[in-house]
Amino acid sequence: KLREIWNTLFLNLAICAGVTLVVLVLTNVTVSAYQDTIERLAITDKLTGIYNRRAFDLLCRESLLDAARNGSNLSVILLDIDGFKGINDRFGHAAGDRVLVAVVRALQAGVRVSDILCRWGGEEFIILLKNCPLEQAAHTAEKLRTAIETMTTLVEQREIRITISLGVAQYRPGDTEESLLKRADAALYRAKEGGRNRTERG
Questions:
Q1: Which is nearest to 162 in space by CA: 108, 112, 95?
Q2: φ, ψ for residue 172, nearest 5 deg
């Protein structure tokens, strides 16, 4: 009789231990998945699904170190949607969001798998091109400009055309993220001042 009680007790303890182990495993998996989601959201643009500015800062810092250490080519393309405020004012922010998503899809189709596309803010985007000299980056920029120029986006049953302006710059020895992006930004400014829908080098 006593032996049966002990056997039952051990069986119950084993079942409890098994249930506890399963609960701990499931909890760990859930927490890990939640943590991964939080980390992904922290570096991802919610609207377009591409990297955000925070992610770019981290990736650019690593790429600059690699370029300085290995002497490899590194270029950036900073681009801006021309007249985007007018699209928002005329058609509303929902239409503006559709335009942003359409532009991102076109940009993704026109860059290499190794290139890093990020939303810089608002209607500005930046592309980090590893192992890519200025000439090749400028060629990529022109290819993207042409692709955007020739596409149409449906907004309120109307097809609207979009153009972009781009500034391209290449890493120089001693460059920081700030100095590299300053040249790209200056080139983008010249593209805007020069009539938009064009590429300038910095």
A1: 95
A2: -120, 145
- How many Å apart are CA 119 and CA 131, to the nearest integer? 21
Nearest by Cα to 105 from 117, 94, 96: 117
What is the model's pLDDT at position 21?
81
The yes-or-no answer on residue 156 being catalytic is no
Distance, CA of 53 to CA of 55 (rounded, Å):
5
Catalytic member of 123, 149, 156, 178? 123
User: Order of strands, edge to edge, in the sheet holding 124-130?
Assistant: 116-121, 124-130, 74-81, 164-170, 199-201
Q: Percent of the chain scored above 90 by pLDDT?
A: 70
The region of weakest confidence among 28-32, 54-58, 103-107, 167-171 is 28-32
pLDDT confidence of residue 41 = 46
CA dihedral (134, 138, 141, 145) in degrees, to 10, reads: 170
Q: 96 near 87, Cβ under 8 Å?
A: yes
Report which DSSP code applies to 127. Answer: E
Task: Find the mean pLDDT for residues 18-36.
Answer: 67
Reduced to 3 DSSP states, what percent helix, strand and coil does the chain have, rounded to the nearest 5? 60, 20, 20
C-beta neighbour count of 102 within 10 angstroms: 18
